[in-house]
Every structure is written in C-alpha cells, then in structure tokens.
Amino acid sequence: MYITDKWEGKEYFKIEKFRYLEFFVGNAKQVVHFYRSAFGFEPYAYCGPETGIYTHVSYVLRNKKIFFIFTSPLNSKHIASDWIKKHGDGVRDIAFSVKDVDNCFKSAMERGAFKNEEPNVHSDKNGKYSCASIKTYGDVIHSFIDDSEYKGIWAPNYQKLNLPDIKYYDTSLVLVDHVVGNVEWDKMDYWREYYEKVFGFSTFVRFDEGDISTQYSALKSIVLRSKNWKIKLPINEPAQGLKKSQIEEYLQFNEGAGVQHIAILTDDIINSISALRKNGVEFLDIPITYYNDLKDRVGFIDEDINKLRELNILVDRDESGYLLQIFTKPMQDRPTLFLEIIQRKGSQGFGQGNFQALFESIEKAQDERGNL
Ligand code: FE2
Asked: In the β-sheet with 114-124, what is the strand arrangement from edge to edge?
C-alpha cells in the first residue's frame, strides 16, 4: 500500500470542482422520482420537446452542491440508445467546472486526450455557456464546462423543472466527494497514465492485491486527484482470486469499464443514513461482528457505536483522522453502479480498513445472484 499527501502532479489547467454527473437511463421520468424521494434531490431544470429538443430529455436535479442530470433518448438514433443497450442505466459524463474551455480542451488534446466533442459556445438572451468533452475509460466522458457567464436556468434550451411536491426525509447530503471507475484487467495503470498525462493529476493512493483481498476475490486500486483535492478519481481493476471478483462481475454486467460508485459527502452521516433508510434506500449489510472490536480498531470517535451498528455505518482511521461510510445496493437491476455516503473527520482516505468487512458483504450479495 502506498499513500502520500505530496502533490506530484502538474496542474496544466485548473479544474474547480465536479460540475455535474450525467446519467443515461431508460426512463428518466421515473428515475427522477426515485432520486427525489429516496435521496432528497430537488427538481432544477429540464430540456425536451417542450423546450425545442426532440432527440432526448434531460432532467437536472439538485441536492445542495450536487447536480445529477438524467438523460433518456427519444429515438433509437440518439447516442444514449446504443449506450443503454450495452451498459444499462449508468454514468455517462463526469463533468468538471473550468475557467477557459478552449484552453483546457486544447491543452488536454495536445497531451493525448481522446476527443469526444470540440469546444462549443451555446448562447441565448441569458448569456453564453461553453462546453467541450474528452473520452475516458469505457464509454464515459469528461465534459469541461464554463457557465460563469450564463444567467439563465442551467443552459440554453433548458427551462425550470416544475414537479409536484413529494414527501421525503431531508438527507443532509452536501457534495460529490469522489467518483470511482472499474476498468478491465491490466488497464489500471494505462488509465492512471492517461490522467497523469492529460490532466496532470497526482496519484496519492495505491493498493495491490495483497492489500485488498478476501478468501475469494481481490482487486487493485489507485486514486488520482487534482491539486485542490476537489477531484478525486479512484480506479479499480480486478486481481486474481479464488473466485470471480466484484470488479469482474461489474465488467461483465456493464459490458466493459465504467463508473462503479459515486461517493457523496455529508456532514452528519447518522442523520443522513437515518433519513435515507426511512426514504427506502437499501444499503449493504455489514457482518454484525464488525462492531465487536470497532473501538479497539479505531479508538475514540464522537459517534455512538450502538447507533452506527443500528445503521450499519463503517468507520476507518488513518494518521490524520477518521471517516464514516456506507454503501448502497446497486442503483439499478444490473449489479453495476452504487452510491457511497461518506463523512470525513480529518481522514482523506477511502476506508481501506473496511474493505475486508465490505468485501464479505459484497460477496454475500454476489453469491445470492449466483455470480461468485
Ligand atoms: Fe468510495
């Protein structure tokens, strides 16, 4: 295992933050209802036939600083149709806020980025909206967005999304902490080099199969980050184990590489998980024995361990502090994308100490699907 706080990258261009995550889904209208009622997202913006767009619909939902876009194709020729046919519902675009789209795109291309879409400026009476995009693993892209000069709702061709009020418990979610990709066998270092070369990101965590394995399965993982720590992108690949690893199961059902999970930051995980559970979100079950020696493993923590046990929240400590985390079951029928809820109390880690307990739980679910 290798962990460093040292910045070893080169900031070729500044990425301010995650702007949004766009999902391609079969039926955005229904998915929107799920993310509203389960995760407390609020309707924000919409484009579709009513706004002059006849090829697809996009719903923008917001929860504090988190923006999710759910896009569904309206015909078989739209790119999302083939995408969904292959991957099922999932994350298409991990979009970044930048200052100068032209420059970022040019700079990325000069260092070998794979082009998706050239820079474009969309404008209307509310100002201008600039975007461009490059490809990454699987059929996932990174958009560069500068909407600092756009004063309308979201982007040109969007209107305010009005939906009837529904009831849910407030989930206290704050922002996107990290977005994790699963890539094919022996491709982890290939994509690490891509992020180092194209974005100048720094690799600050590395685990090999010796660090993360159970009786049956193993994985390798690295984490890349931007200089300002706002963008953290772990990448996993399968490693040889006795049986099929969870990463292989993902690759099989996603038909290739893609986004494995989105981690969402909260500043009160007990409140968040209580609310999410009441809203009907399903989380992975943790072996009850996990809590027996928790105090010995992590030392003093502010939270009541009984409460953590009741909610199945995990804890991990490193030199700089600790973190609390929990993982949902898959968000769709294919065992592909899931969400993580995380609260950081000093630690910038990813819950390495929890992988054992977590893997056992994931493998139990995998076994129930007949895929172990
Ligand atoms: Fe994570």
From this structure: 114-124, 127-135, 141-146, 90-98, 15-24, 66-73, 56-63, 42-47, 159-160
pLDDT per position as a tens digit, 264-321 = 999 999 999 999 999 999 999 888 778 888 888 899 999 999 999 999 999 999 888 9
Q: Measure 261 CA to ligand 1 centroid, in angstroms.
A: 7
DSSP lists the bridge partners of residue 141 as 93, 135
Specify the residue for token string 């699963």. 182
Q: How many CA atoms lie within 13 A of 263 on its CB side?
A: 23
Task: Confirm if 329 and 283 have CB atoms less than 8 A apart.
Answer: yes
116 vs 221: CA distance, rounded Å: 26
Q: From ligand 1's centre to the CA of 180, what distance in Å?
A: 7
Contact 7, 225 (CB under 8 A): no
**What span, in angstroms and rounded, lies between the C-alpha atoms of 181 and 191?**
10
Distance of CA 44 to the CA centre of its chain: 20
How far, in Å, is the centroid of ligand 1 from the Cα of 276?
18
Q: How is 287-326 classified by DSSP, letter by letter? A: -GGGGTTHHHHH---SS-HHHHHHHT-EEEEETTEEEEEE
Query: From the CA atom positions of the chain, what is the Rg in Å?
Result: 20
What is the tens place of the pLDDT at every residue in 83-111?
999 999 999 999 999 999 999 999 999 99
C-alpha 348 to ligand 1 mean position (Å): 11
